[in-house]
């Protein structure tokens, strides 16, 4: 089964159960890769439907202070893409949730576009999110990902105009990632203020599932946003627990994951 097929199967399963998907995020290497592996397994057991693994980068332009600090800690530990792909290979058989890598473009470019996609797919990754890669410059990576069945998942924002949104969703695979706010991750803005209109535009442009992320931190917020989409992404709230509890963060992260998924079972 390719990565695209794995993600499709997950959304079909969630839809059949009349639930909304929970996508959780963890920064690889924070506080260390061994703990990251345990966190991934813990989130999977607690109900995460899809798990995003962030590749730390020194200039994470889409991320707020919480994930910026996590990236800095991970880089200080020497975390790098080859080690993260080894981690994916180690945990893939232990989890049900598809694993999606989130990376800024430069680490992938330095690795080699085709080489990265091939190694990521061989390691067991199902998809790839590159938040700083504009559609106009994504052709080569789209081709590389397509060759190995890796889903390249695009982001759209409230500021994306309709013509551009149509072009982005036409090239999308597996699902569309909708940014709920005009800002960075972890900001406490009104997360339902713009997602309603954005979701209407995405629904008109594609039949792919859409998930919403940025600024969702609690079960209550997840329920409000889930009304307009097929799933929600929670990142900074979980990373903040890792920052607070470090190697002892498994149970706090599992608890929040469990609460979030429970809220999405009957949103």
Annotation keywords:
267 residues, alpha/beta, TIM Barrel, 9-stranded parallel beta sheet, globular, lyase
Characterize the structure shown.
The active site is at 52 (proton acceptor), 63 (proton acceptor). The protein contains twelve helices and nine strands. The chain is of the alpha/beta class and 267 residues long. It has a single domain (3-264), classed as Alpha-Beta Barrel (TIM Barrel), CATH 3.20.20.70. Strands 5-4-3-2-1-9-8-7-6 form a nine-stranded parallel beta sheet. Helix 2 runs parallel beside helix 4 (81-91), helix 2 (33-45) packs parallel to helix 12 (250-265) and helix 6 (113-123) runs parallel beside helix 7 (139-147).
Provide a short characterization of the protein structure.
The chain is of the alpha/beta class and 267 residues long. It has helices at 3-16, 33-45, 65-76, 81-91, 105-111, 113-123, 139-147, 162-170, 195-205, 219-226, 236-245, 250-265; strands at 21-27, 50-54, 99-102, 127-129, 151-153, 155-156, 176-179, 210-213, 231-234.
Order of helices and strands: HEHEHHEHHEHEEHEHEHEHH
Distance between the termini: 30 Å
Calculate the mean pLDDT score and round it: 93
Strand fraction? 5-15%
How many domains make up the 3D coordinates?
Answer: 1
Q: What is the CATH topology descriptor?
A: TIM Barrel
User: Unreliable runs, pLDDT <50, ≥5 residues?
Assistant: none
Subunit structure: Tetramer of two alpha and two beta chains.
Function: The alpha subunit is responsible for the aldol cleavage of indoleglycerol phosphate to indole and glyceraldehyde 3-phosphate.
Pathway: Amino-acid biosynthesis; L-tryptophan biosynthesis; L-tryptophan from chorismate: step 5/5
Pfam families: Trp_syntA
């Amino acid at each position: 089964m390719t990565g695209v097929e794995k993600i499709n199967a997950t959304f079909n399963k969630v839809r059949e159960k009349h639930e909304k998907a929970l996508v959780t995020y963890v920064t690889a290497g924070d506080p260390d890769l061994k703990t990251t592996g345990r966190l991934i397994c813990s989130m999977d057991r607690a109900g995460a439907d899809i798990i995003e693994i962030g590749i730390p980068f020194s200039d994470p332009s889409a991320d707020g202070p919480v994930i910026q600090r996590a990236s800095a800690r991970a880089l200080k530990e020497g975390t790098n893409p080859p080690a993260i792909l080894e981690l994916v290979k180690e945990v893939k058989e232990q989890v049900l949730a598809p694993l999606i890598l989130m990376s800024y473009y430069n680490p992938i470019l330095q690795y080699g576009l085709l080489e990265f996609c091939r190694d990521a797919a061989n390691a067991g990754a199902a998809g790839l999110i590159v938040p700083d890669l504009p559609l106009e410059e994504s052709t080569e990576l789209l081709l590389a990902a397509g060759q190995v069945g890796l889903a390249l998942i695009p982001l759209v924002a409230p500021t994306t105009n309709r013509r551009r949104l149509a072009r982005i969703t036409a090239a999308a695979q597996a699902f569309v990632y909708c940014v709920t706010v005009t800002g960075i991750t972890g900001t406490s803005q009104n997360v339902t203020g713009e997602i309603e209109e954005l979701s209407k535009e995405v629904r008109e442009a594609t039949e792919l599932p859409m998930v919403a992320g940025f600024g969702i931190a609690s079960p209550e917020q997840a329920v409000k946003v889930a009304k307009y989409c097929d799933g929600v992404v929670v990142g900074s709230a979980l990373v903040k627990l890792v920052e607070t509890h470090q190697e002892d963060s498994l149970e706090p992260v599992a608890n929040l994951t469990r609460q979030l998924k429970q809220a999405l079972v009957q949103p």
